[in-house]
Design goal:
This protein is of the alpha/beta class and about 250 residues long. It has a five-stranded parallel sheet, sandwiched between helices. Strands 6-7-10-8-9 form a five-stranded mixed sheet, sandwiched between helices. A hairpin with a 7-residue loop joins strand 8 and strand 9. The chain is globular and about 60 Å long. Keywords: Cobalamin biosynthesis, Methyltransferase, S-adenosyl-L-methionine, Transferase.
Amino acid sequence: MTVYFIGAGPGAADLITLRGARTLAACQVCLYAGSLVPTELLAECPPDARLIDTAQLDLDRITAELVRAHEEGHDVARLHSGDTSVFSAVAEQMRRLDAAGVPYEVVPGVPAFAAAAAALKRELTVPTVGQTVILTRVAQRATPMPEGEDLATLGRSGALLVLHLATGYADRVVAELEPHYGADCPAAVVAFASRPEELVLRGTLADIADQVREAGIRRTAVILVGRTLGAEQFRDSHLYSPDRDRDHVC
């Protein structure tokens, strides 16, 4: 049978994809991150499905549950918050399943940065202002950053930065990015994007850390920094330009 790694989306239960919901409804076993995945999604599971909250399980125990379900002949849904492609800890699970000879597939979901951009009502790439988005995080004691991926280095690009797992280090983020972006650079924090308790903070590098502190935000949030967040005067894109030759694909 097959293990399905499913991106559950950023929080709102109705932001799971149709494919994700259909797959969830067909699996007799579901492993989910109880602290992050909305419990409303579990209603999509079959009534007699075995539901396993992985919040308190380590990698060995999670793998054992996946292998056990496979050996019992069940398809398995492994629900992850957001999208599986970034900061999901899916890679090490796939590696374990490869070693155990257990087949798996991946069903993508709506990533947190996309939900944050929607909450801000902003396109993160704006013609002539910024065309690059960097998804990253900050170094922590448990998981250091690879060489060359520190904020000071990434900040030299001037690209729009989206930082996951970083609101507890907002002062450090500001200190490392201000020399490259300037204190007046637009910055925002979106916590619990797409959920009823969604919280949006808007400001600049000069004040965003103070706002985070005052709001008491510690987790389930992303920090965004870059000029496209405040762009108003910019050239229209070529995509819909009346001057574009629509007889040729470009």
